[in-house]
Amino acid sequence: MAELINMPKLGFDMREGKLGEWVKKEGESVGQGETIAIIETDKASVEVPAFRSGVLHKILVPVGESVPIGTPIAVIGEPGEMVNLAALGVGPAAPSSVAAKAEVRAEAPAVTAPAQAPQPALEGGRLAASPVALRMASELGIDLRQVIGTGPGGRIIKRDIEAYLAAQDRAAQEAKVAPAPVVAPPMPIPSYEPTPEGYRAVPLTGMRQTIARRMVESKTTAPHFYITVDVDMEAAMALRSQLNALLPENEKISVNDFIVKAAALALRQFPNLNATFAGDEIRVHESVNIGIAVAREAGLVVTVVRDCDKKPLAQIAVEARELVARAREGRMKPDDMVGGTFTISNLGMFDVENFIAIIGPGQAAILAVSTVKQMPVVKDGQLAVGTRMKATISADHRVTDGAEAARFMQAFKAALEQPLRLLL
C-alpha cells in the first residue's frame, strides 16, 4: 500500500526544511532504514531514512525547494503498485505509476487539526504507540489521545507525532492576527571590502542566526549559575592508556568518553539536573541522553548519545566517534540531533584553562570541560606534579539550586578520580 513520506521535524525550533539531494530516484527500490534524501536545515545536512521498504514511486518536492515540516515530499509503496495520488491527497484523480511516469506537479495539502479527538488504538488496554513515538510525546508534552495513528492496526508511530506537530504549528500560525505591513528601506548589499571605518560586513548564515536566537533565548529566560571543580585526572589518564593499548584504533577511548560516562553516572544520582523547565512543572527525564557539542566551520551543532548511564564505556566511545564524524561531515541523521537531556562542551583540545557555557533551550544544565594539564600540586604536604582538569557546570536556577549542583559536581569528580567505577 502506498504511503506518504513527509518532511520530518529535525530540531526543536525547525519550521521548514530544504531538499538538498534525492539519494534515491523514482522507481528505485528502497530498504527500511536506507537513506532516501538529504534535508538541509539551519544547522546541518541530515539524512532521511525510509520508514519502510518498497519502491520510491513519486518525488513530490524537487531538489532546492523548501517546504514546511509535515509536507509530503515523496510516495513510497509496493513494487508494481498503481498509485492513486488523488487518494493520497497530493495529485489529480488519475492514477499514476512508475511505469507511466505521469508528469504531475503535486501540491502539499494543508494540515489541519482534527475536529474531534480520534479514537486511539489499544494494546492490552493501553494506548498503542511505538517506543519512539512515546519518547517524542513525553519530551514534547503531547497527549497521545489527540494523535491519529497510521501504523499497523492504528498504532501511533514517529511520523504521526511529526504530522501532529505540523498541524499544531499551522493552527497556531493561522490563529495569529497578521500585522500591518511595514515597508522597510532596501537593505544595503553587504560589502566584503574593507570600509573606511576599518571593518567588513559579513552576513549571518541561517545556522548562525539560529544559534544567536537560541542562545539569547536561553541566556535571557534561564537564570544561570555556575560551579567549578578541579578534577584529579591522573588515575583516569592511566586507565585510558591501559585500555587503549588493548583496543584497535577505531575503538580507542577518548578523554571525552570518560567525561560523558562520568556525567551520566552523576545524573543518575541527581536526576533533577537531567530535566526540562516547562512553565508550571519540571519534567525529569527517565533516559540520560547526553549531547556532545561539535564545532564546525559553519557553527556549533550538538549530537546526542542515548542512554549513556546504561551503556558500557567502550560502546559510548564507538557511538560518539560515529556521531561526531557525521556531524563534522554535515551528514547527520534525524535522531542524531534530538532527544538530548544534558550537554557537554569540551574545549580541552584548545589548551583552555577554564570557561563557562550557555545552557541549551529545553535543558537544565550544561557542563564545560577544559584541558587536562600537568601542574604543580600539594600532596601530603609536599609539592608534586599533578594531572588536573577544570570543569564548570552552568545550571538553571528555576530547576535546581547551588547545593544540589555542587553535589552533582562532587559525584562527577569522584567518578573520574576513581575511574574503575566507569567500567562497572
How does this model look, in words?
With 424 residues, the protein is α+β, with helices and mostly antiparallel strands. The chain has 2 domains: 3-174, RNA polymerase II/Efflux pump adaptor protein, barrel-sandwich hybrid domain (OB fold (Dihydrolipoamide Acetyltransferase, E2P)), CATH 2.40.50; 207-423, Chloramphenicol acetyltransferase-like domain (Chloramphenicol Acetyltransferase), CATH 3.30.559. The chain contains 8 helices and 19 strands. The strands form 5 sheets. Strands 11, 14, 15, 16, 17, 18 and 19 form a 7-stranded mixed sheet that branches. It has a 4-stranded antiparallel sheet with strand order 1-8-6-3. α1 (131-140) runs parallel beside α2 (158-175), α5 packs across α6 (313-329) and α5 (255-269) packs across α8. The radius of gyration is 25 Å and the shape is elongated. The model is unreliable at 93-117 and 176-192 (pLDDT under 50).
